[in-house]
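WARN retry 2 of 3 for item q-0093 after timeout on previous attempt; input resubmitted unchanged.
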Amino acid sequence: MVYFELIDQDKNNFKFWEIENYWNEDRPNVYVRYGKIGNNGIEKRFYYHNIKWGSKYMQKQIESKVKKGYVQKKKKASKAKAMAVKTIQKKSPKSTKVRLVKKNANCVMRFEKKYAERSSPPIPANDCSVGTVASGNDGMSYEVVRFNSKSGKSNRWVKCNGNKTKCQPTKKKLVQSKPKAKAKAKAKSTAKAEKKTCPPGKVLSPKGRCVIDRSKPAKATKKDKLVVKKACPPGKVLSPKGRCVIDRSKPAKATKSAKKPKSVVKKTTAQPALKLPKGKVLYDVNKHGVMLAHTFKDPKSGKIKTAPKGSTQAPNGWFLSEKYDGYRAIWNGQDFVSRNGNIFPSPPDFKKWLPTNEALDGELFMGRENFQKCGLFKKKEADCEAWKKANVTYQIFDSPTMSGMFEERTAKIQKLIKDQCKKHSGKCPLIMTKQIKVKTEADVYKHFDKLVSKGAEGVMLRAPNSPYDKKRSNYLLKVKQLFDAECKIIGYKPGSGKYANMLGAFKCQLVKNKNIKFTISGMDDSIRQNYKKTHPIGTIVTFTYMGLSDGGVPRHPNYLRKRGKE
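OK item q-0093 returned
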């Protein structure tokens, strides 16, 4: 048995490892045992058929351990050796010659739980030859005896001086030193417990250790509660639970004789919360869908999107409008809803301008280059003051419930906005999107450059005499301001849904700034299926994006192409 140790006091590392090649057994195997010094460790056996393999494997394992810092040492005597198999002298009545029982190579101590807990020796009896004697876990001597059973002959450990045994029994000697030692140890521990003091927040356990004090503090009496009074800021009152909550109590009505209190009451109730009657839901986005746009030009091929049947090829005779950098919102007669069916909470002072007889399609807008501030629309409760300060408007460009083609619907929407804005005083937030008729591609990019230079996101193109198509439609095209840059692939994101078992997106980092990491999509199915071969980690790709966030991360990144070899 070759024995090694690894001792590293800085890392609190104390390990042992031993190996032996049992090539002469019925099933040749390499035996390995390893673990922390002082423990039994873990045993493993590697069986083989080729004898050369065993010696080579053993040599390789020893070399690898030496490289890791293990040092070969002589194995120290342990309890296992004390319990090892002993041979005994067998005396015959006629002669005084001693017959030694032969040791079996497989008769080795085992460390499994079932062997450690039993009273007999921790060695399988069938692995030892008949007549082998060993000391058991209870300190008594046992001998291997052959028995006949229904399944056949088998070996068993039998206590000496028992049935069929020839060995002499051992007598247990009562050693008084051990109990004394235990008593001394207990006395020391109690002495230490008496002297030991714990830091604040910890208490002494029965075992003499400092543990966290988990005892509940004593409940304060009524007198203590009356003494400790919490002061709340203006506009809040103390609840029965001792928390400061908003004061929702109605102000006291002023009497006729008190004139000054009347003026105070008027000031506090000058702007009461507006309560609007709940309207009916006129359009269900989840059931019917929303009209979405295709890209005007394919970024890879540069071809203009094919026009739908019965319509002229874009942009000849199409309507151009600004593409707003806000949140797409459908007014369903009751609330503003996203294209995925999520409600945007809005204040009643804003809702009062909206109609209850028609659904509208538009954009909640806070001005150009203010997309980062649009998180205001995602709040669980609408902040009335924040909406007023942000000067939020609703840019309307269509209606999913109005009849007629595009030109007819825009005329009806213009009239509806005029009627709604007359109902209330103040600045009306409803604005009709301006539509400009264009003929050529040059006209499109002329208006595009003009609007983008002022901070617009891009432009939209709408086919003349077109219906409200409740899906991604060729009747509606978008022209966006795109930038391109290069990034390095650092990982893969698995796909889901129709891209299950395929690539979902590339995990990338900017070539110019390794700290900026993001994901890009927009690959075709051939790349998604063979991405590890075509785009291994480390590949540089070109992508398009629409500006940068405040943190410098590209917005709406889209895969364009793989960079060629330079």
